[in-house]
Design brief:
By secondary structure, this protein is an alpha/beta fold. The protein contains 10 helices and 13 strands. Strand 3, helix 3 and strand 4 form a beta-alpha-beta unit. The longest helix is centred in the first third of the chain and has 21 residues.
Length: 308
């Protein structure tokens, strides 16, 4: 009975969101279906600028209702959906194609087939206002990755891409840096790079002159991977923010990174947190800081150092 009541309440909230989206008086800017925070009904959703609903799986009928609401909406700038399966992404693409305000799209833990990605790509080609896309923990079926890769290589609109937990091949990530010239922020946490993937990414980073922020946390690149990244930093002159948190890097790997930062004058922020660099690694960091005068942010939490 409690589960049925919760499902009924969720359905009611979902209906309210769709009604508000389609309203001419709608002020909503951010819609997240998948977060646990719920909007405050007392404020009136039409007047709200942000709404979060806890929706584990967006069902087909709800997607139809949401698609129609989006077609009538002109205010939404951010859309985040979780658990979109069974061709749902392709269905939504029709609404995204001509939306006048949308800039940021996220599909969390969703399943995308070839037709889904093909329709989404067609929508993104038409709607160049969308510059920030993400597919955290998504599953791509068959050649869907290839279709997305071809689009990103040629895109001049996408500047920020989040592929958290994706399972694409290493070559895919490397090609992003080599060919997607509009990309300035790339998030690749937990994509199983390991040392080999870091090597391929580093090779692309050497010739990349547009990326400003790179996040490769939780990828087990180790000291070998850190060496490849360090070598790339010596040649790269645009990367400003680098996150290497929790990558199994020890003092040996930090030595390679710090050696690169003796020469690199572009990097302003680096995160080495949750890597067991120890006191020896701290010595390399301290020596680097005496030479490097461009680094403004350094994160060392969880590095087995006293006081951190």
């Amino acid at each position: 009975a409690a589960a049925a009541a919760a499902a009924e309440e969720e359905a009611q909230r979902f209906g309210e969101v769709c009604t508000a989206l389609a309203s001419a008086r709608c002020a909503l800017r951010v819609l997240c279906l998948g977060e646990c925070t719920r909007y405050d009904r007392s404020k009136g959703l039409v007047r709200c600028k942000r709404a979060w609903l806890h929706v584990i799986l967006v069902e087909w009928e709800r997607l139809r209702a949401l698609t129609e609401a989006l077609k009538a909406n002109s205010t939404l700038t951010t859309l985040e959906l979780s658990g979109v399966h069974g061709g749902g992404v392709g269905l939504l693409a029709a609404a995204l194609q001509s939306h006048p305000a949308l800039q940021r799209i996220r599909f969390h833990r969703s399943v995308l087939g070839l037709n889904d990605v093909a329709q989404l790509v067609a929508a993104l080609k038409s709607n160049t206002r969308v510059h920030n896309i993400g597919f955290p923990r998504c599953i791509f079926i068959g050649t869907a990755w290839d279709v997305l890769a071809d689009y990103l290589k040629a895109s001049t609109a996408i500047s920020e891409l989040n592929l958290y937990g994706s399972r694409a091949k290493e070559q895919f990530f490397s090609d992003l840096l080599c060919f997607c010239n509009s990309l300035t922020k790339l998030y690749l946490p937990d994509v199983r790079l390991c040392a080999y993937g870091a090597q391929m990414l580093a090779a692309a980073l050497r010739v990349n002159h547009h990326l400003a922020e790179l996040n490769i946390t939780y990828n087990s690149i180790g000291d070998e991977g850190a060496r490849y990244i360090g070598e790339a930093l010596q040649a790269n002159d645009t990367l400003a923010v680098l996150n290497l948190e929790d990558n199994g890097i020890t003092a040996k790997g930090v030595e390679s990174i710090c050696a690169a930062l003796h020469l690199n004058v572009a990097l302003s922020s680096i995160d080495l947190g949750d890597n067991a660099i120890g006191e020896r690694g701290a010595d390399f960091v301290c020596h680097m800081l005496r030479i490097n005068h461009t680094l403004t942010a350094l994160f060392l939490s969880g590095t087995c150092l006293r006081g951190f």
